[in-house]
Amino acid sequence: MSSNSTNSSSEKALVCVGFCPQVSLFQKAPKCFSSDSWVKLADGQRQNIGQLQPGEKILTYDSSNFLYSEMILMLHKSTRNEALFYTLQTKSNHTISLTGEHLIAVATEEGSMKYIAAKHVRTNRDSLYVIAANGMLIRSPVIQVTYEIKTGYAAPLTMTGTLFVNDVLASVFAHVYSHTAAQVAMTPVRWYYTGSKLMSLFSSNENKQSENIHDGMHWFAQAMFNYALQLYPSALDFEA
């Protein structure tokens, strides 16, 4: 294991190769993707993750197939607050920046997929799922983990519970140990969203724009987190 400081892009950065120590800074920071990230829309165009609107279809994965899934709401967003991000770089030169408790897809030793917190990703051990130049989903080893303090973050919720950020597969959930359990817990939100569409409550531009006017955590996400923290804290990955 070796580690060294780096001044590329930020004076507040640490690069680790091999085992990286746990970082205690900003433990209460929101758990999202950095605002300089992008996703791919159904028309093939790239969209800044913080500019997504409810109803837009973005590239996701349902455990076996690519599909374009609607963005339901923004779980958490800020354009001006700082957070500590884990920037993961793969051998294929893909990078993704997400906060420590955010779940990301990695390959197990048996070759199956599982979701772990970004803070547990290790070089020389873990591989991420990325989209190759030929459009295929491949596994690419993590070669570098960089800790960076950045300004701005966003966490969109999709129907599938997944998304590709910078062509890297990740969960939309954080602070939980189980991606599957979190997806089940969000079932009422998906029902409400689908029902609202049928009732044309999400059809107007005014409704789409008002969803993202204010920074902060969405009230439902905050309520679900508080509920779990009080009644089922063992399901949460949270450091007070």
Please characterize this protein's 3D structure.
It is built from four helices and 15 strands. The chain has 240 residues and is of the alpha+beta class. The chain has helices at residues 179-185, 187-198, 205-210, 219-231, and strands at 2-5, 13-17, 33-34, 38-40, 46-48, 57-61, 66-90, 95-99, 102-107, 113-117, 127-131, 137-158, 162-165, 168-174, 216-217. The protein is 16% helix and 43% strand. The strands form three sheets. Strands 1, 2, 3, 6, 7, 8, 11, 12 and 15 form a nine-stranded antiparallel β-sheet that branches. β7 (66-90) and β8 form a beta hairpin. Mean pLDDT is 79; it is low at 1-11, 21-30 and 204-213.
Pick out its properties:
240 residues, alpha+beta, 9-stranded antiparallel beta sheet, 15 strands, 16% helix
The total beta strand count reads: 15
Taking pLDDT < 50 over at least 5 consecutive residues as the criterion, the unreliable ranges are 1-11, 21-30, 204-213
The number of helical elements comes to 4
What does the average pLDDT come to? 79
**Helical percentage:** 10-25%
Strand content: 35-45%
What is the CA–CA distance across the termini?
29 Å
Radius of gyration (Å): 17 Å
Mass-distribution shape:
globular
N-to-C SSE string, H for helix and E for strand: EEEEEEEEEEEEEEHHHEH
Largest sheet: 9 strands, antiparallel
